[in-house]
């Protein structure tokens, strides 16, 4: 039985708490939650039967915690990781792993053992059934020359997501890391260059729409990533285009279509089940069997490098090679830039 200490427990953190008490019952449990809000601490204790603490130090001092789960806004992750990493316990961190590439690079520099640490970044889309299936089908499509992945989401109601320091600048980071990680997972490595454009529209204080095309210099492959988070709509699509066939994957509704010539066939209808239980199972497997984490700190850091490339390209109006994005000049979000009215 793996006993978790939860660092934060807002809207998304409570999802983890529910799944730990339901699908993971008997294998893992939450023993303590750190939450600043007193009313919320009382509610969580009453509803889930979990101990709660008001001070972060109280969570650190507990001997009954086997692993920590960080579910706070990204702008808090660097400080929390600096306090948790020296304890040497397994860590599951909600993505993005930090708010900016500079913060991630600082951790990489200051904790030499970080590449070998038991830290996993919670990239939940890797556990979506239709995306898992689509990845297994890539070899059937012929030579892959085009990937397009897009998410259309409702405007955020969370105040911290409108704070550039807390959110990493908005959708380029918060939602973008989902898409960047999918590209890396499907292709096998980080792209080499990007051309992108990001905007703050409808009065948003952080980026809420962007379009970025990534390139690989060793293959003829263009990868488009698009996010819109300003309209009352929700859709999530992945398109994979090869020389023999094409897949269209709807990971909001949960289906896969194959197009060959002018023939379109529905291959799978799997719905949209929660991915957190599968992610938690994967984390527990790695902890119990001392296996490498399936999504490690390096993976999380690379998605932030891709986000930094999008910011740089939008800011400078040019194609950016990602090897230009070094720790000392990594561009961060500027909420006043590229604002549209």
What does this structure look like?
The chain contains 11 helices and 15 strands. The protein has 341 residues and is α/β, with parallel strands linked by helices. It is globular. It folds into 2 domains: 2-124 and 277-296, Rossmann fold; 126-273 and 303-329, Dihydrodipicolinate Reductase, domain 2. The model is unreliable at 335-341 (pLDDT under 50). It has a 9-stranded mixed β-sheet with strand order 14-13-12-11-7-10-9-8-15. It has a 6-stranded parallel β-sheet with strand order 3-2-1-4-5-6, with helices on both faces. Strand 4, helix 4 and strand 5 form a beta-alpha-beta unit. It has helices spanning 11-21, 38-48, 56-60, 77-84, 101-110, 129-137, 164-167, 171-174, 176-187, 276-288, 297-316, and strands at residues 2-7, 28-34, 51-53, 67-70, 91-94, 119-122, 144-152, 193-199, 209-215, 222-228, 235-242, 246-250, 255-260, 263-269, 320-321.
Concise structural overview:
The chain has 341 residues and is of the alpha/beta class. Helix content is 31%, strand content 25%. The protein has a 9-stranded mixed β-sheet with strand order 14-13-12-11-7-10-9-8-15. A 6-stranded parallel β-sheet has the order 3-2-1-4-5-6, with helices on both faces.
Topology:
Blueprint: E1 2-7, H1 11-21, E2 28-34, H2 38-48, E3 51-53, H3 56-60, E4 67-70, H4 77-84, E5 91-94, H5 101-110, E6 119-122, H6 129-137, E7 144-152, H7 164-167, H8 171-174, H9 176-187, E8 193-199, E9 209-215, E10 222-228, E11 235-242, E12 246-250, E13 255-260, E14 263-269, H10 276-288, H11 297-316, E15 320-321
Parallel strand pairs: 1-2, 1-4, 2-3, 4-5, 5-6, 7-10
Antiparallel strand pairs: 7-11, 8-9, 8-15, 9-10, 11-12, 12-13, 13-14
Helix pairs in contact: 9-11
